[in-house]
Amino acid sequence: MAAKDVLGRRGEDLAAQYLERQGLVVLSRNWRCRHGELDLVATDSTRLVVCEVKTRSSTRFGVPAEAVDRRKAARIRLITRAWLAAHQVRWCEIRFDVLAVVAEPGAPVTVQHYEGAF
């Protein structure tokens, strides 16, 4: 497994743990369809919370959340429709969040949670 994949997996693990500490229940991790992948799908018992996780080893080239642009958000919305269909969810309130994880060597890991990011 490539170093960036290991870092990404670690970031997703930390993001899932963070969400669970906030009282959310993770329903799906790395759910895939022909359009792509959803990192985390959770619920706060009121709504579905679809989370894109971006992990970086430093902020030298910007904060991780900046990687979620309009095009990426549109793709996540498309994949979410496929998730809803696959899980036979007819309608529910949905919030789209971004979790930015920075794991700099020798420093504490930080998780920034952007609720309703797009």
From TrEMBL:
<keyword id="KW-0255">Endonuclease</keyword>
<dbReference type="Pfam" id="PF02021">
    <property type="entry name" value="UPF0102"/>
</dbReference>
<dbReference type="InterPro" id="IPR011856">
    <property type="entry name" value="tRNA_endonuc-like_dom_sf"/>
</dbReference>
<protein>
    <recommendedName>
        <fullName>UPF0102 protein FB558_1274</fullName>
    </recommendedName>
</protein>
<dbReference type="InterPro" id="IPR003509">
    <property type="entry name" value="UPF0102_YraN-like"/>
</dbReference>
<dbReference type="GO" id="GO:0003676">
    <property type="term" value="F:nucleic acid binding"/>
</dbReference>
<dbReference type="InterPro" id="IPR011335">
    <property type="entry name" value="Restrct_endonuc-II-like"/>
</dbReference>
<keyword id="KW-0378">Hydrolase</keyword>
<keyword id="KW-0540">Nuclease</keyword>
<comment type="similarity">
    <text>Belongs to the UPF0102 family.</text>
</comment>
<dbReference type="GO" id="GO:0004519">
    <property type="term" value="F:endonuclease activity"/>
</dbReference>
